[in-house]
Amino acid sequence: MGPTPGRLVRNIEAAGYRADQIDDVILTHIHADHSGGLTTEGRRVYENAVLHVNTREAQSWLQASAEAQADAALGPQITQANIDPYVDA
Fold it and tell me: I need a surface site. Which of 4, 42, 49, 64 has the fewest CB within 10 A?
């Protein structure tokens, strides 16, 4: 999604913190451009954090219909794989 994403952890570390010190992650919505950096190789980037998402938002995106998942514009935004490790924890 462009040339500049993927720098959040590096910037957190530059500020003197570590990703494992993050206690809470709050998402306004679960689009891939917001949740895409939450996991790496199926593991939580913020391993000690609790993920907070509005219930209606979670239900809408994490229980998306097969039709929504197949939609050319909407489908790539459905990012359950980025959220599942936090739900499982």
Answer: 4
- Looking at beta carbons, which pairs linking 7-11 to residues 24 or more positions away fall under 8 Å? 8/37, 9/37, 9/45
Instruction: List the chain domain ranges.
Output: 8-88
Whether the Cβ atoms of residue 75 and residue 68 lie closer than 8 Å to each other: yes
For residue 54, what pLDDT is reported?
A: 92
Angle between helices 80-88 and 55-62 (to 10 degrees): 120
- Report angle CA 79, 10, 39 to the nearest 5 degrees: 20
Query: For residue 8, is pLDDT > 70?
Result: yes
Provide CB contacts within 8 A for 44, sequence distance 6+. 38, 85, 86, 89
Check if the beta carbon of residue 77 is closer than 8 Å to that of residue 51: no
- Could you tell me the pLDDT band of residue 2, with boundaries at 50, 70 and 90? low
Residue 48 clears pLDDT 70, i.e. is over it: yes
